[in-house]
Structure formats: structure tokens, C-alpha cells
Amino acid sequence: MKRFALALDLINDEKLIAEYEAYHKAIWPEITKSIKDAGIVSMEIYRVANRLFMMMEVGDGFSFEAKAEADAANSKVQEWETLMWKYQQALPTTKPGEKWLLMDKIFSL
Question: What is the pTM of this model?
């Protein structure tokens, strides 16, 4: 099993952050299904201020490319992503079309 860490910022507005968290307490079932169908075994998102940190554990067959293709073909995932973008903002180093950025592991104990 592989583990990936990703980062993304939220728009720095307390009301919007509260709404974003509320959506994640009641994630749509179609989103949960798309995550599991992609081979993601475990996913956690943490927040400090407006910075998000996501930890994903994935099965051996997981591919970011395949997940992106499946998401692009899934209208409910596209609806969710459009809605979430109301709350999210790209990190300064993000390239056009990117949201979550992979983080580099720099230490392990």
C-alpha cells in the first residue's frame, strides 16, 4: 500500500470554512463511491487555519491519471468539485488546472 500527502488552501473566510467542513461531515455517497472505486483505501483531511492537508492510502493499482479520467466522466463528481471550488483556492505554486498538490516527504521516524 502507498501513502500520499497533499495540500490545498481554503479561501480565508470563517463562514466559508464552516460550510466546507459541514459538506465534509455529510459527503455525498457518490463521492465516497468514486473515491473507493479509484482504489483509495483511506483518506483523511486535516485543517489548520485555511490550509488543508490530505493523507491518502491507496492500493497497488491506484493511479492519479485513472482517477482523474474517471472523475472527468462522472457528472456527480464534477458537480462536487465545482461546488468545492467555491471554498478552495490554489496554492501559489499550483499550475493551471491543478488543485491539490502532492507533498514531498522530508522526514520519517
Answer: 0.91
